């Protein structure tokens, strides 16, 4: 029994580089049996990528190995190869720029759905700052996709009634983002109040049943993607329909620190069944999402993120993470609450907290300890203690867990 882990990166020239991440093991239980890793999936990744002015290109290959009992290697895809190319033009008339995003993908399973994809998105962007201080961003794009898929379970058809063949779509979008920042200075502090809003117009639907969903399944609606043009994570699913989104950004900046907050919501004219009922996006009004960051000049770093149900304002998800104290003694906290209605339905309510500390005793030596507790089940999950020595060319660490 054994394992082999390595990663490498080589700069070919100032434009191109290549690399690999390799993770191999003799069997599924070896790593956890000997406490070497708690990973439940091993990822192997090869890539070649290039950067030049306003363009980027990459060729990649992925292979995953699932280590859980229920993982089926026949249903685990091999992605080889996948190509991406992204480019912006130089600013033209009135500062407008053209954008091109292209993708080619070959995804294969030994048993299960296979997918071959060609995707091209062309778009035009026009930023503008008005004399009043308002910030506008007008955009329009067209996403064109062609697929050849095998053994696809079409939604609404009988289980086992699989489809194969060509499918495609042409999906246009047009939208406008608007911001109006107000700033006020007083002494060492600057206060900013910034309402944000936007509108996006696109055809309803846009997701034929013959297009298998490979890269857009893991949707987490939060403050980071409220204003996104497509809140799905990949290219296989597009967000159609007409919608508006709005929010408020607030911030206070000091000489050495800041505090900011954001809250927002979106509204669509027509419900979209593409989104799961638990996503917070399937109804006309979305759930309310937001965040608060506290980073004053003192050694304090806190972030709180939340999602509130649009009807009763009940808490669907809360996440708190942060640290307090200098390097000599720093206290860390991580708290998470996830209501069963805020995800895929695979899990019941989850509430967990982790507390710990780290202490940099000398420039080379540090110690730390932590504990993690399941608040739903009212039981401890884990405890850890470590001692570490680190210098420029050598690291040694002892862990007890």
SSE layout:
Layout (H helix, E strand, L loop, with lengths): L2 E9 L4 E10 L4 H4 L7 E12 L2 E12 L11 E11 L8 E12 L5 E16 L5 E19 L8 E18 L2 E5 L2 E13 L41 E11 L4 E11 L19 E8 L4 E9 L6 E10 L5 E9 L11 E11 L4 E10 L4 E12 L4 E6 L1
Antiparallel strand pairs: 1-2, 2-3, 3-4, 4-5, 5-6, 6-7, 7-8, 8-9, 9-11, 10-11, 11-12, 12-13, 13-14, 14-15, 15-16, 16-17, 17-18, 18-19, 19-20, 20-21
Explain what this protein looks like in three dimensions:
- The model has no long low-confidence stretch (mean pLDDT 93).
- This protein has a 21-stranded antiparallel β-sheet that branches.
- It has one helix spanning 30-33, and strands at residues 3-11, 16-25, 41-52, 55-66, 78-88, 97-108, 114-129, 135-153, 162-179, 182-186, 189-201, 243-253, 258-268, 288-295, 300-308, 315-324, 330-338, 350-360, 365-374, 379-390, 395-400.
- It is mainly β and 401 residues long.
- The protein is built from 1 helix and 21 strands.
**Low-confidence runs:** none
Give the percentage of residues in beta strands. over 45%
Rg for CA atoms: 24 Å
- Beta-strand segment tally: 21
Number of helices: 1
Molecular shape: globular
Give helix and strand order, one letter per element, not per position. EEHEEEEEEEEEEEEEEEEEEE
What is the mean pLDDT? 93
Quick recap:
This protein is mainly beta and 401 residues long.
Features:
401 residues; mainly beta; single chain; 21 strands
């Amino acid at each position: 029994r054994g394992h082999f882990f390595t990663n490498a990166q080589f700069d070919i020239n100032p434009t191109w580089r290549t690399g690999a991440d390799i993770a191999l093991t003799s069997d599924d239980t070896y790593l956890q049996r000997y406490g070497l890793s708690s990973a439940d999936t091993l990822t192997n990744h090869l890539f070649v990528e290039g950067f030049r002015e306003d363009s980027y290109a990459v060729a990649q290959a992925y292979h995953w190995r699932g280590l859980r009992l229920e993982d089926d290697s026949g249903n685990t895809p091999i992605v080889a190869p996948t190509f991406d190319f992204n480019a912006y033009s130089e600013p033209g008339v009135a500062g407008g720029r053209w954008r091109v995003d292209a993708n080619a993908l070959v995804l294969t399973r030994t048993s299960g759905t296979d997918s071959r994809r060609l995707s091209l998105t062309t778009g035009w962007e026009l930023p503008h700052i008005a004399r009043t201080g308002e910030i506008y961003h007008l955009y329009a794009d067209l996403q064109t996709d062609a697929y050849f898929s095998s053994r696809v379970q079409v939604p609404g058809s009988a289980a086992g009634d699989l489809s194969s063949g060509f499918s495609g779509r042409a999906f246009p979008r047009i939208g406008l983002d608007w911001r109006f920042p107000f700033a006020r200075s007083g002494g060492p502090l600057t206060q900013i109040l910034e309402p944000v809003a936007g509108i996006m117009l696109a055809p309803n639907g846009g997701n034929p049943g013959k297009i298998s969903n490979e890269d857009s399944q893991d949707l987490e609606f939060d403050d980071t993607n409220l204003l996104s043009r497509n809140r799905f994570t990949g290219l296989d699913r597009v967000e159609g329909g007409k919608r508006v989104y709005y929010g408020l950004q607030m911030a206070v900046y000091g000489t050495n620190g800041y505090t900011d907050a954001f809250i927002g919501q979106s509204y669509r004219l027509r419900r979209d069944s593409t989104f799961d009922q638990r996503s917070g996006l399937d109804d006309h009004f979305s759930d309310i999402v937001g965040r608060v960051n506290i980073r004053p000049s003192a050694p304090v770093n806190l972030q709180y993120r939340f999602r509130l149900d649009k009807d009763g304002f009940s808490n669907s998800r809360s996440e708190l993470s942060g640290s307090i104290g200098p390097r000599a003694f720093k206290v860390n906290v991580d708290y998470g609450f996830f209501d069963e209605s805020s995800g895929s339905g695979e899990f019941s309510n989850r509430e967990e907290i982790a507390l710990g500390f780290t202490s940099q005793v000398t420039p080379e030596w540090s110690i730390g300890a932590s504990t993690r507790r399941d608040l739903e089940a009212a039981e401890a999950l884990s405890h850890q203690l470590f001692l570490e020595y680190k210098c420029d060319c050598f690291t040694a660490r002892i862990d007890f867990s």
